Amino acid sequence: MTRKQTTPRGRTGPKKTASIEWIGGTITLPSYVADPGGEPYRPEALFWMGAEGALLGSQLTKPDELLRMASDSLASTIENTMFGEPHAPTRVRVASPELADALRAGHPGLDVVCAPTPELDDVLAAMRESLGQATGDPGAQEPSFLAWDITAEAMGAFFTAAAALYRAKPWKVVPDDQTLFAVTIERFDVRDGALSVIGQAGQSFGLILFSSLDDFEAYLDGADAMERGETPELPEHLVLSYERRAVLQPALVKEATAHGWEVATSSAYPLLMSLDEELIAGPPESEQVTMAEALALALTQVLGEKKALKKAWAGGEPFARTLTVSTAEGEVEVTLRTPYARMPLVFDASHDLLADLAALARHEHMDDGTRQALEDALMERFAAAPEAQDVEDPHACRFLMDFAANYLGHTVASLGAADLRRVVFQLFPRKVSIEPSEASWVVDTLRAFYTFLKRELGLKQADACLAVLGGDAVKKLEAALSNPGNFGMAKSMVMAGAEAGFDVQSQEGLEAFMQSMSSMPLPASFPVPGLPQPTSKTATQGKAASQEKKGKRKAARSARRKNR
Fold first, then answer.
1. Residue 504: its pLDDT value, please?
2. In this structure, are residues 168 and 186 in contact, taking their beta carbons and an 8 Å threshold?
3. If you write DSSP's letter for every residue of 73-85 in order, what string do you get?
4. Where residue 556 falls among pLDDT bands split at 50, 70, 90?
5. Residue 560 to residues 113, 225, 308, 441, 486, Cα–Cα distance (Å)
6. Which H/E stretch holds residue 288?
7. What's the pLDDT tens digit per position in 476-487?
8. Where does residue 486 fall: left (phi above 0), alpha (psi -120 to 50 degrees), or beta otherwise?
9. CB neighbours of 512 closer than 8 A, spacing ≥ 6?
10. Closest CA to 391 of 451, 304, 469, 458
11. What is the DSSP letter of 239?
12. Going by DSSP bridges, is the β-strand pair 21-28/91-94 parallel, antiparallel, or unpaired?
């Protein structure tokens, strides 16, 4: 039996009915649009669904506006539900803590629960797949190389530079996609970006530029995770790929022909794409087009020095060149180094470490290498300070700074009192395998650290952070460390192994514990993920090839780390 669908006309207002649950959730659309200023972004949609599966309302907005509009969206949906008679829920369930907080602030009398939403997840997954397969509105604008205010002159110059690079065949010179160039283009805020040349296997020719070596290696880890069937977030990156004329949309071929843009062959139409964390491709911005032009021009010149490059890759003198190239937007200086090795960062005693750490926190994607170098220098100053004289082990400071960066996107310079409380009393108990008796060590060490930051470096939020670490902070942390309900999956396994008598601080001990667990039944509260088994010769061969590729990745990463 289906319910009668109604329209807003003639409604007398929402009915208050006992025990009605709604479910809310968001989806990021798999396409880019531009705001009036021309900046591309992926819209987000907020959906409201009834417990019986009916879609009740939705809100489409920019990502940074969704939480601000969530409360009004819920109120509007209560007044004008898309399906059935208008009614108000007694309870709303959402999976996002941030969304839950926004709804509680706007609807203080409503029971808002933060819990999994599998019903809505299934709907959103189907919608996401449908949107990803959609071919578009027949009346929509045709695709164009000149999106987001890119001029024909700039795109034409990029085509010419890309054609020259294609003729230089970098994939014939660079031995594999693990052999990286470090790229610095100060004009576009690129410093030690990681450039990978692809196409050595005779397919998918082009370049991939990551903002840092950390991002490149995170991308490789993400690729491994996808092979395991997982869906990891990947770092943003810029891709220059060469495509065959036959696979391009006719409108793009027509546009390139009409402007007379240069291509090396009919199989080498250059496409420049900016890929986000979900590998959704968006068109480049005008600055990225000029940057890609400069990079293509510089790399083409560098590839002419084959003997010096091969010597560098064979363990000889590292290769480094700084070139000034002429682009459609003027001269641009490009520095290319290979093999990729981190340049050591040295800070003198007068260097403002907190200012640099604060600046890092303002970037959407923090450079972990620079952050860790700054934190190393900060820890050296702390070790020499009078506040550290009674600190036997400062690792609690390292835990704090790593967790702040990895989970909250903060450095110690930007971490406020509320987020410090979250790190110490929520993340530490979930992630750090220490005994409750160590609570006083953690709190005392962090107190000394913040006292130093206040006296020596003038950290403005030091007093507020010291207040978090004062009073009954030790007892509070001790209680949190004692509560198994706070343990994350990884910590639960480590603590269980330690209680069973295994040396879980060593790889061998942890593996021995896991081996012992596989031979005994486990309670439902201690899930162990199953391992997929190859079901055919083809699957086994695929696994072998994958393992070989992973082995090459690990070897290349190990070699790079030796050069850091």
1. 45
2. no
3. HHHHHHHS-SSSS
4. low
5. 47, 21, 19, 36, 37
6. helix 286-302
7. 999 988 886 654
8. alpha
9. 502
10. 451
11. E
12. parallel
